[in-house]
Amino acid sequence: MSQQAIGTGTTQKRRIFGNLSLMLMLTVFGVYLLTMSGHTYSRDEETMLAVSQSLVERGSWAIPRNSTQVQVTGADGRYYSQYGPGQSLAAVPWAAAGLLASSFFPADQQGFVLRLILGSFNLLVAAATCAILAALGISLGYSRRASLVLGAALAFATYLWPHSRTFFSEPLVALCLLASFYLLVLSYPRVSIETEDIATTNPTPPRRNLLFFSGLLLAAAVATKVQYVVALPAFLLYLSWRISSQWSVASGQPRSNRAPDPKSLAPRSSPLAPAVWWLIGLGAGLAPLLLYNLYAFGSPFSTGYGTDLKGTFKTPLYEGAFGLLLSPGKGLLWYALPVALSLWGFSSFARKHQAESAFVAVLGVSLVIFFGLYGFWHGDGSWGPRYLIPFLPFALLPALPLIHSATQPVPDKPNSKFKIQNSKLITRLAVSTLLALGCFVNILGVLVNFDTYINVGYDDETRHWIPYASPIVGHLNLLGQRVSEKASTLRPPERTVVFRGGVSYSEGDKASGALLPRWTTGRAVLELWPNTSRGPISVTLRLNDHRPPQLPRATVTILVNDNPVTVDRAPVPDLPISADYSFSASGQPARVTIATDTWNPAKLGENERDEELGVRLESVTVREGGAVQPYSLADDLAAPPYYPQPRWYYNPATHFLADLWPVYMLEMGMGRKTMLALGLPIIALGLLCLGAGCLGFARRDQDLRVGRREIVTNQAGSIEV
């Protein structure tokens, strides 16, 4: 083949490489956007959001006092976030856009609008991480197809997907660490020294700008979450390894026991210069963090976590390390099943990429030791081992040889074809099985709010260590229950009372799942599904008016099918604040509304319950044909967006079918106009990104068909572009 053709193929290869990373990012972001949650999950997220809001509204790192957030008192007596400033600063554009958009909506919906827009922040961060991982695979010499599969595995077969829906800082740390390492890899030319012969006596010097930004990105990871400074030894090891390799090549001899010839290095810059540039970038990134610490906490080396670490690292290492890696409830292996491919392919990866495999090993050991000793090693509430999210892309790298082998065509060698085919079949089956199972496991983390299982499931010890209590099993059961509940409330069986809305959480026995007693919130709606063959029914509601004595008694109005009815009110003996309200109803179903005036315990100083309450519903009794009939109770609540204010991340009253933003909007009764105003742009953008990514991959296949004609086939078969 002519040099011109080869040159054309090389140009084509570089162009396709750039497109592939972007197409993968768009595709992942599109899927993530369509499956986002639209809310936060923890006090940590609410605290970092408060800092972003403060920067937008007041230009200050200090935040208003709020007992539901994780705040510490700063050197100036004001309140600051316990967490690093990186996440809050990076999310300022999202907070500004959310605050602006929310101003166009009613006051009671503005908080949801802000969090819905903020929810796209980590989606973009995680999608970019997947794209960089694919680009890193290509830069290490693996096929584009294998690198794309690796990026897609990170996106959909690991717990990065559920965590992309949160505002936790770990996904941003993962992006910064991976981008820093990627730039470090790109800054050095690929040098192969396998024999005593020298590939080149005039190696290309490392690119200083890439080294500088690599150090800067590592500093950004530390500014986002200071604990990840423990990644520094892995970066220093890799940098030292590359400097050593460069020194060996520059001296005109391979890395061996022979000392380099000083004369061969005289006209060139020092091999230590790359380390200097990298450290300059690291220092330039850490300087703003030290200034922030000085401003907020009075010392450059003081953080929101304080300096007293007594009691912080109290977990036995064997317990924390096993918990992070293999425990049924929090083990990395179960929430990121493709990591098993890395264990299988690590030796093959290490033979070809010694420096990179050493980096992965040191980084993994550093993080497991540090967080394994951490008192809160499990990082609840979250899905999987949250603190190991920054290690996820690196943990998948050693899987590249297996994925590369599984995605390559079988060479046409008659003598070994059968053996090779069997080997590839096993590899492909293992790769596809683990990727499919990984997707299934993490879809459970997407569809079910992990706070739900933490609150209604087993205690921490049981949930972390006992297989049957693992959140993976628990979420599968919860999802089945939600589907069953929704199916039963769409057309409930006869003799069922369904709570449709206007009630708070149940105060009955949690162990038995009792749905009564519970407070109404001003306008409770119940549906009664009687046996129509028995004719009209007689209903008795026992209501408790347990409000402070200085308030007037509740005014209660009962409506049936939206029409007022005659009610017989009878006081309950020995219970002066309770009364039985009896009336007749008909219909299939009979829709009963309990309308009352409300009061707020927190505003009256009675207790901390900041909720508008009407009366407490103690029991529902139904008579058919004059005889009392047993009725079952079921929930189908259009719950408020949060309880108690402003706790957005978990509502014990919610029984949503899925933890997805359209379901939240629908269940909260936000109204058709609001749903369209918010939902249509999200769906349009998600489909646009997904379509652009798929179109880009389709065009890539067309380019490859042209490119293959320009590639010389070797003896083993065709070379993949």
Task: Write the SSE topology.
Elements: H1 3-34, H2 43-57, E1 71-73, E2 79-81, H3 85-90, H4 92-102, H5 110-118, H6 120-139, H7 144-156, H8 160-164, H9 170-187, H10 208-224, H11 232-250, H12 262-265, H13 273-297, H14 317-325, H15 332-335, H16 339-352, H17 354-373, H18 392-396, H19 400-407, H20 417-447, H21 450-456, H22 460-465, H23 471-490, E3 496-506, E4 518-529, E5 537-544, E6 556-560, E7 563-564, E8 568-572, E9 575-585, E10 590-596, E11 616-624, E12 627-629, E13 632-635, H24 661-667, H25 672-708
Parallel strand pairs: 3-13
Antiparallel strand pairs: 1-2, 3-4, 4-10, 4-11, 5-9, 5-11, 6-7, 6-10, 8-9, 11-12
Please describe the biggest sheet, giving its number of strands, its sense, and whether it closes into a barrel: 11 strands, mixed
Q: List low-pLDDT spans.
A: 1-17, 191-202, 253-267, 640-647, 706-721
The N- to C-terminal Cα distance equals 16 Å
Shape: elongated
What class do helices, strands and sheet pairing give?
Answer: alpha+beta
Task: Tell me, rounded to a whole number, the average pLDDT.
Answer: 85
- What is the number of helices? 25
Number of DSSP-assigned strands: 13
| Fraction of helical residues | 40-55%
Radius of gyration: 31 Å
Beta strand %: 5-15%
